[in-house]
Amino acid sequence: HATNIGFQKSHIDPLLFILQTTIFTTYILLYAHDIILDASTTNLLIQIVSQFSYEFSNTNLADLNYFLDI
Fold this sequence. Notes:
4 strands, 4-stranded antiparallel β-sheet, 1 helix, alpha+beta
């Protein structure tokens, strides 16, 4: 679904997808059963989550503060 809405698969990590324009950048990182989203604006993040909710059931647990010792 990510590639259907304009995301490109990263050449560095096959689980990282990037959507970049001159105005904004959005990242999707897939890990096991989790999806981590980051966007350059809050409104863009809300739009991406909304688009994904049409295809997948999702739960926004909270802001990401810790992931794989990073």
